[in-house]
User: Fold Tetraspanin from Parnassius mnemosyne.
Amino acid sequence: MITFVQFASFFIFLVSVETVATVGSAVLNTWVGGGSELRVHFYKNSTVEDEGGHAFWDSLQSENQCCGVDGPQDYAIVHREIPSSCCARAHPLREGGARRHLHASCLSEKSYYMTGCEETLRQKKSFKGKIFITTGVVFVLLEIMCIILAIWMARTIRSERRRLQQNLQAHFET
Assistant:
């Protein structure tokens, strides 16, 4: 049979593990995630003809509504034209005249995405990290409230038991 001390020890262990996980995720969310690997991939993609690399960047830019690593100026640095995946209206279309026309108008009107993918991905990662941290904090607080409630209930039951024992003892003494 599990004693109160074993139960309390296990519960404190769980709260400790959740606290460590929450603090750990906060630390990792702050430290991890430099965009250097994204930057290396971008410049490699710009200098080497690789369909897989182009597909990766097209997908990344269109899904995240971003352009380049730091912004569309990255393409000017490597002497490349801003791709259609940086244009909201041009990229969903298949290759053809309409896509080329929308891409050309996007470039002339400068209506392409202005935010770099590094910043966009950092914001998304930060948001997911905040959700994880908040969930951890909520669970830790909930468990602490449960511990406080359990201690209060144990004290109430103990005092009620003492009162009943005193009443019984007083009843039998008279």
User: Anything to note?
Assistant: The helical segments are 4-31, 36-47, 51-64, 73-77, 97-109, 117-173. Residues 34-115 form a domain with the Cd81 Antigen, Extracellular Domain; Chain: A fold (CATH 1.10.1450). The CA atoms of residues 20 and 106 lie 49 Å apart. The mean pLDDT is 84.
